[in-house]
Every structure is written in structure tokens, then in C-alpha cells.
Amino acid sequence: MKNDPMIKLVQTIDIDSVNLTQWIWANRSSVDLATESKEFKIYSKDNHSFKNVVTKLKQHYPVSLAGFDTFRHISYEKGYEDYIPKLYIVSGKIGLDTVVHVIGSTEAVMEVREMLKLEFPTRESIKVKTLHAINPNGSFDAASHELIKDNQIFAKSEFYPWLDKSIEDFTAEFMASKSNVMIFIGPPGGGKSTLLRTMMFMSGLTKIGKCDNEAAIAHQGFMKWVRSMGRDSLLVIEDAAKLLKPRDKDNLTMSDLLNYTDGIVAYNTKIIISTNLESLSDVDEAILRTGRLHAVHFFSKLNSEQANTARAAASLPPVEFTEKSYSLAEVLNFTTNEDILKRRKKSLGFIS
């Protein structure tokens, strides 16, 4: 065991490397080690200090190797002729947060994961980089903000009659697709933003960008911001009617976007474009090309049966709907049919 090459490997690693797990995994061939490699981040913002994490790890796993500010553990099982490595745990600090790297059998890695989840509950959240505007000098007015899962209203598949699968599977299919563009189209209140937000959480990506400013989208510098998101990213573009216009209507951003989407397959950049247009008649046909476009989804209004199905999915009681159709927003925020009619007249400019 003293001559085990993996011990020597662990002794030489850079504990502050953000690619620590990948580095060990790439060099694992010197040992008989299967089959999982996982990284778990424990956030200091949830009041979990590195010292507390190391203390708990030591309670659960005897320390084979330890440094002053690191936790390193190798677990062995007795074989017929020698000790067989089962599990490697290497933990260290990146900034104020703690990162625990686990490599070993699937069973062993999942055991560590469950222990970490139990001992260190965290707020599930994502960070979204939002482009608010592009300044006259070409610089970006952008900011990152955190969306905490517990504070969000998430979409249900029952909200969308056209959706024949779970939202998890719907998202996973798009993430795995070789086509990198998806379009949501339909009038306001149809649940497009709710589904977009849900997909952000389910995407599994850490680089997420969002823009809903028409002036910024139409700006000649917009594609520079899109490219800045880099590989393995998700970009959500809302209120994008001008972006989707045919190029013969002075839509230079569309030309740049088409060129970009032809080259992003290898970078796994996913783009979801949402618009309040009611049909595809005003959309540039080139963006709809097979291979470039994963799918177009129309968000139509719900009939009374579909409306109560959506309410049931949201744990809301059934109501009597008397109008022919309702937007998802009207269904989930229903008061009375009379009130909905008044709000519709007001939105059209009628005062009663």
C-alpha cells in the first residue's frame, strides 16, 4: 500500500486547481479504479466553513493523507493478494467555498454524496448573467444575479398541452441535441418565461446568460456579448421579435446569429429565443433550417379542461371557466371570469 502510485499522485496535486477531479481522473490508469468521478461544491454562503467540512469528513472517513488545510483520503478493500482501492476523496478550498472531489466505484461515490447532502444542506441556486443594455461606447451594462430554487415558481408539463414528456426529459433532449437553437412563440401570459426559468435550473450548465432588452439585441455589439458566454453555456433571449425578422429588413443581428449558430455545435452553446409573435410568418426562414433549429414550440391558450388540469398540477382548486380560452397566467391567477374580462379590455386600451 505504501508504494501505491495513486498515493504518490494525490501527494503531488494542486489542491486549488479547479480542474482537480479531471486531472486525477485522467491519471487514474495506474490503479484499478472504477467508474465514477464527481465534484461537490459546498458553499460558504450557506454557513458551511471549510473547517466544518473537514471535521465531518474525518468523522466519516479515516484520514490516510492530510495537509494543514486539505483533506485527503484513500480507502482500501482487502483483496486476495493485495489491497484494492475503493474510494478517493480530496477536498480543498476554492475561494471561501469547499470543493470535495470523489473518485471511486459508483456505490462509493453515491454514498459520499448522500453523506454530504445530509450533513451540509445547501440552497439550490443558479447564477444568471443578464445583459441590460449596450452603452454608446460599446461596453456592456450587465450583471450577475442568483436565482434561489426555493423562491421560484417552476413549470409543470401539465401547463403545456403540446408537451408530451416531462420537463426534465424535454430539457435533457435539447441539451443533448446537435441542434443548438430552440424558439418559443406565442402571446404574453402563455408561460414562456416560466418554462425558460425552469429549463435554466434543469440544464446542468453553470454559464447562463439572459437578455430581454430589444435595443441591446438589435445593437451591432450584441453578438460580441453572445460569444463572450463561451462553450457549455445557455443563452436565453426574450422579447426577440426584432431579432427574428428576415435579414432583408435590415436585421444585421440575425445575419451574425446565423453565422454563429453554424459554428457552435462543438462548443455546446444552447440558445433559446422567446417571442410574443403569433406566427412564424415574420421569422427569418434561415433560422428554421433543419440541423440548426431543434424545435419551435407554440404557446397557445388553454380551454377549460386544460385550464383545470394546469391548476391541479399547481395544487390549485378547480374553478368554473366560462370563456372559450385562457392564458396560463389567467388560469394560475384566476379570481373571477368577470375580472379577467375587465383586465383583457384594459390591456386592449378599453376603459370600463
Q: How would you portray this structure in words?
A:
With 352 residues, the chain is an alpha/beta fold. The protein has helices at 5-11, 20-26, 50-60, 106-119, 167-176, 192-202, 214-218, 222-228, 252-261, 304-313, 328-332, 337-347, and strands spanning 36-42, 65-67, 70-78, 83-94, 97-104, 125-134, 140-148, 181-185, 207-211, 233-237, 269-275, 293-298. It has three domains: 5-119, TATA-Binding Protein, CATH 3.30.310; 126-298, Rossmann fold; 304-347, no CATH class. It is 31% helix and 24% strand. The strands form two sheets. The chain has a seven-stranded mixed beta sheet with strand order 7-6-9-10-11-8-12. Strands 1-5-4-3-2 form a five-stranded antiparallel beta sheet, with helices on both faces. Helix 5 crosses helix 6 (192-202). It is globular and about 70 Å long. The protein starts with a helix and ends in a 5-residue tail after the last helix.
Q: What is this structure, in a nutshell?
A:
This protein is α/β, with parallel strands linked by helices and 352 residues long. It is built from twelve helices and twelve strands.
SSE arrangement:
Blueprint: H1 5-11, H2 20-26, E1 36-42, H3 50-60, E2 65-67, E3 70-78, E4 83-94, E5 97-104, H4 106-119, E6 125-134, E7 140-148, H5 167-176, E8 181-185, H6 192-202, E9 207-211, H7 214-218, H8 222-228, E10 233-237, H9 252-261, E11 269-275, E12 293-298, H10 304-313, H11 328-332, H12 337-347
Helix pairs in contact: 5-6
